[in-house]
Amino acid sequence: MREKDRKLERMRLDEEMKPFRVAVREANPTDGLLRAVRQTVGIPLAEVAANMGVVMSTVTDLERRELEGTITLRSMARLAEAMGCKVVYGVVPKKGRTLGYLVEERLWRKVLGAGNSDDGPGTRDVGT
Questions:
Q1: Angle formed at CA 100 by CA 94 and CA 28, multiple of 5 degrees
Q2: In this predicted model, what pLDDT tens digit does every residue of 94-113 receive, in sequence order?
Q3: 38: closest CA among 72, 62, 20?
Q4: Closest Cα partner for 98 from 26, 30, 24?
Q5: What is the DSSP code (8-state) at residue 108?
Q6: Nearest to 88 by CA among 26, 15, 6, 17
Q7: Which pTM value belongs to this model?
Q8: Residues 119 and 26: beta-carbon distance below 8 Å
Q9: Contact 126, 100 (CB under 8 A)
């Protein structure tokens, strides 16, 4: 991919992922999200289990595995679908920074021969 194309794609992705960059600034913004959605909407465990074709303990196990960080995307998607939802995930730089920031940071590390630092040269946040 040419540099010009990479820059345009970074800008597009940064805009698309803006809500995720805001969320990542919070400590664990999605812990227990599946259970929280189910309870907030008022969907009983039995209904979710029936929609998935599993027993209720499987649903509680999936909710627990989400909290532990051991659930698979496929399982999350199945559980979300059973609640009439869809899983949407994002990959964003830490601390709500942009992809452009990462590119600039990598360049500075290369130029200065610096180690891998979260707050290295060029620590200003580039847009939000």
A1: 15
A2: 887 888 888 889 989 988 88
A3: 62
A4: 24
A5: H
A6: 17
A7: 0.65
A8: no
A9: yes
